[in-house]
Amino acid sequence: MLSAARSLVFNGILAERVRRGTWNRIEAGDVANLDGRGSVFTVPEVDDALMARCDALEIHATAPLPGEGESLATGAVRELEDSVAGQFPEAMTVIRAERMNAERRALRLRVRDLDHEYADDVLTLRFVLSSGSFATTVLREIIAGAPGE
Question: How many other CB atoms sit within 10 Å of the CB of residue 58?
Answer without folding.
Answer: 14
